[in-house]
Amino acid sequence: MHALADLAQERPAGAAPVPAAATPALTGADRSSVPVEAALPVTPAAPRPAPVVDRGDLRTEAVRLAAEGQSQRVIATALGASTSSVARWLAQAPEAVPAGA
After folding, report:
1. Residues 75, 89: contact at Cβ < 8 Å?
2. What is d(CA 72, CA 83) in angstroms, rounded to the nearest whole number?
């Protein structure tokens, strides 16, 4: 049972009932002092979808940079990708990367 209902049942006969939680009413003067932002409900912004990126171009560029001798960390930073993505792209195109790069 609800806690307030339990309290109401335990009160002696003839005692005033336990009031429900009330929201205080604002007068006109009170309302004008409340900023509009405070009166509006706060809802989180919907997550934005990830931008569509042509990964083929990024992979081609990663392979080109690796062929120039750039490290995977440098390639990832230059392309705005993670180092694990760059490693995976280069592993999928091993013939384009010279041995030891």
Report:
1. no
2. 6
Dihedral over alpha carbons 72, 75, 80, 81 (to 10 degrees): -30
Q: How far apart are CA 86 and CA 76, in angstroms?
A: 6
Q: Report which of 70, 71, 62 is spatially closest to residue 90, judged by C-alpha positions.
A: 62
Angle subtended by helix axes 55-67 and 72-79, to nearest 10:
140
Amino acid identity, residue 54? D
d(CA 6, CA 94): 72
pLDDT in tens, 5-36: 554 456 666 666 656 555 566 666 766 676 66
Please write down the HEC assignment for all residues of the chain: CCHHHHHHHHCCCCCCCCCCCCCCCCCHHHHHHCCHHHHCCCCCCCCCCCCCCCHHHHHHHHHHHHHCCCCHHHHHHHHCCCHHHHHHHHHHCHHHCCCCC
